[in-house]
Amino acid sequence: MDSPKPPKKTARKTSTKSKSPKELATERKEPWVSILSLDVDIENLHQGSFELDWNEFFVARLVKAGYMMKPEDKDADIVDRWFQNVCRNVVMETWEQEQAMNPQPRFTQSKNIGGGRREVS
After folding, report:
1. I need a surface site. Which of 20, 90, 119, 121 has the fewest CB within 10 A?
2. Number of folded domains in the chain?
């Protein structure tokens, strides 16, 4: 007579969730920031918003770079100030490129209005 066989061992699947880029950067103590979403108002395409996410090492880097202005600043205030600065720089760079590509002289008109004064437009 055969001896009873032990029950089969089944391999358990362990759910190993892969880590997000934010988690990986945070583990390495590296600054991390990302745009999570961009929303645009379909009725007014000039209006929109961004949703950002960041880790504490990114905020620390911003503070070290001088972005903290008030003791009561929260992380979101510091990141918002940085993002506004980035957007401002993008606008200025675009404007400068347009000016370089289309160097149209800007003429002003000057009109003597008497009394040693001139009107410039």
Report:
1. 121
2. 1
Residue 41 CB-half CA count within 13 A:
7
Q: What is the spatial distance between Cα 50 and Cα 38, in angstroms, rounded to a whole number?
A: 5
Q: Does any domain span residue 72?
A: yes
Q: Evaluate whether residue 30 is within a structural domain.
A: yes
CB atoms within 10 A of CB 62: 20
Which tens digits make up the pLDDT trace of 68-107?
A: 878 899 999 999 999 999 999 999 988 888 777 876 666 6
**Within a domain: 6:** no
Domain around 34: 19-80
Which ranges in the chain belong to alpha helices (H)?
Answer: 21-27, 56-64, 75-101
Q: Which two tokens stand for residue 98?
A: 């347009």
